[in-house]
């Protein structure tokens, strides 16, 4: 490894795992029957299990890997307030009048903003200690044109998502970030951040308190429809259930090919630096916000909960690559924003899959075969999948007061697409060229 950036104690593992016993799943036996079998032990599945348990049902959660092994404990810990949903706004097509478009946006962004409220209420109710803070987010403008684009949307964002957002011109940018890299940007106050590993462990404990059985290293196999429910073959034997929930998101595979072909798994890569001087750390992000930018090749970054490290993530590549490939790319991106971190070494590097839908919207519903699902976080999974998982639990209990706008929507795919994202390297190269062109033109 390149000794100039890799710490001698470097680990190709998530920094968050330092605080949690990854792989030490609670001991449990596979029961012969459950009310609901949930395939996927991440944020979606556990939130669903908590709601089911609170409502008196008996869920069983299965995960092929140790519980939380996927993106639930590999993300950056940002908690969106609904400001990222519907990047493509493809659902506005076909709506003729401005009022129709606005009502569609109101429904989409209003429901998306519920994700933050759900997480805050859940953390308080279940007593989850995960360093949650509503510190807000600064989104840097890659070019002056991007700044103008943000400014044109900010009133809609505030009205429909209650974002408490404002524009910050370049001359005031250092109020948010110790860098001149961007052309100003947008401050969104209604967002938060947390420790993903501790949040996931808190969800596990809450699900168990409410009666859920959690089984890691238990792979789901054939799904057979019965007269009164389902039979699920697993690596530990069969289990029968009234309903089955698929909560696999970016790790959706051959078990459910119809869902797999509707998702684009995209790798997101993150590095953690060694501990840096506390005064330097405080100067980098004066208000301790999470940071992101308007580039097509997205970056997102923040300080660790103890404010001693920089956690820097982004699309170093759109597919899975080794730390030897991703870490130097992310380290270089970090130094472009903060040259003052030159010489700072990397202690952790890791990757995880997020899942995009072709319409850039989250989805919840029932397949033609009768399987329930909630997936397609589109990069905002901490808030969105927690919320959709809980809403799905309420729906299965028959206790929903309303139907979320993401429930039952058309879940598009493309002809001949099977779920293998062969096009991503080309998309990545095209996005990099467009980012370069925009910056050059600026």
UniProtKB/TrEMBL annotation:
Q: Which GO terms describe its molecular function?
A: oxidoreductase activity
Compositional bias per record (Gly residues), positions renumbered to this chain: 75-91
Cross-referenced Pfam families, in alphabetical order? DAO
**Which InterPro entries does this UniProt record tie to the protein?**
FAD-dep_OxRdtase, FAD/NAD-bd_sf
Q: Where is this region: Disordered?
A: 73-97
Name of the protein described by the UniProt record: FAD-binding oxidoreductase
> Does Phosphoprotein appear among the keywords?
no
- Gene3D superfamilies for the chain: D-Amino Acid Oxidase, subunit A, domain 2, FAD/NAD(P)-binding domain
Species this protein is from? Muricoccus nepalensis
PANTHER family the record matches:
FAD DEPENDENT OXIDOREDUCTASE DOMAIN-CONTAINING PROTEIN, SARCOSINE DEHYDROGENASE-RELATED
Q: Which UniProt keywords apply?
A: Oxidoreductase
